[in-house]
Write a structure and sequence with these properties.
heterodimer; A: alpha/beta; Rossmann fold; 2 domains; 4-stranded antiparallel β-sheet; 10 helices; B: mainly alpha; MetI-like fold; 0% strand; extended
Chain lengths: 267, 266
Amino acid sequence: MLDLVTDRPSAAAQALAQTGPLISARGLCKSYDRRRMILDGVDLEIAAGERVALIGSNGSGKSTLLKSLIGLHPISSGTLQCFGDPVDARGSRKQRLAMRRQTGFVFQKHCLVRRRTVLSNVIHGLFGDAGSWRAFSHALAPPDWRDRAMQALAEVDLADKALERADALSGGQQQRVAIARALVRRPRLLIADEPAASLDPVSGRNVMELFTQLCRDHGITLLYTSHDMAHAVDYADRIVALKGGKVLFDRPAAQVTRGDLKDTFDG
Amino acid sequence: MADRRLEAPGRFTGFSPLNFALLVALGAVVLASMGKVAPSPQQLVDGVPGMVNLVGRMLPPNTEPAFLARIGLRILETFQIALVGAAIGILLSLPIAWCAARGVSPLGRGNVVVKAFISFLRTVPDLVWALIFVASIGLGAVAGTMTIVVDTIGFCGRFFAEAMEDAEKEPQEALSAIGAGRGSILVGAILPDIMPSLINSSLFALEKAVRSSVVLGLVGAGGIGQELKVAFDLFQYRNASMIILAIFAIVLLMEMCTDKLRARIQ
């Protein structure tokens, strides 16, 4: 495995040196059945403001790593820190929820509540804040939540669809709503699990451009997985490849070669 | 020689000797039970004159205005028992079903205790609940309402919990990933997803409540059933036939309304 710090771009290295890593994983292991390791000793550090793409073939552990980072899947062993706080199975539920509230998460299948309006779905992004039962519906939400949600919808260019049902939108539009929901709380970290995988090439590219632009504008750290190498190379500062639950390489996107990608996806 | 792969499979595949023996045993039990409790053709024939006599004494139904006014008030009370009992029962069913639903319950594996409690409410017949409430609260409509509440929790608790267990998992995971608690996931992702199912079950519960509230009066728990019992006890069969017609009308009306509402939801 390559040394992480020496391979990181200089701007990110400076950020890391100044503020410490946003995410720090050491020897991370995860197994669902105590026999097969899905993650096998993963080391990863991500500095504030970085855009990191996680690549690997199916079953390499990408999605498990993303979900482990925010405690959705408890890790089996190793140490993990997110925003400077340890994340492990022993941590309190309150602590895990507090950490997740600084994180936005976008799934491959957008995971919207189909029967609710677009605006209500975006306001759902504020669940967990004080009085969050009011995020049940845009009709009950406080005025500033509605304003923030409308602003987030405007950023993904869907303000005119606010009162339409989520399942009335196209796949690309639904993914943009999911992005607005993830960003409405202005998280410090945005995690996306193959955000463009279920979209056609043009919509996928639009979604990736939107993602990276919004993260750059708001200073949000971005960690995403992708099967599309163009999405990884074009939109990330750094690419981390996983193979068999281990980190195969971790280097700046500009330095990733065709041979690296072949190694990642071959056999 | 014919290709064996093209031969049609046997007609009764998977029908093992054990299954056959069980089927024969079940048939024997049904036949033996029929010999004990089913009416014989002779009994049916003997019962016809009695039935004709009774129907003759029931006709024409009593349509005196004073009687109809009294029946109208009792029908109203019956409907109130059903409506209030079902409404309270449905509201109470929601948190109980949440606690009982596997994978969703805030009690974790403690959900089985709540599930057992709901099963208990459901397995005790409504007339038995009515007897219990009449004995504890006293005669009248309140006992009837309490019976409908308990009966509705037994019915809706189960169906609401099953709907919550079957709700789409992805939106729940999405809300969990951004820090939503269990209550937020319930109101944000689960309830909107299962709303048609909740409304459907609630309408069935209301229909069931109306049917139940009609007979609760037989044990003194208020409503039109009480009038029916009095009419039969005092051999006032013309009154009884009018009450039966009124019951038929209210149940039919309720089923028509709920059918229309159900069709609109779907």
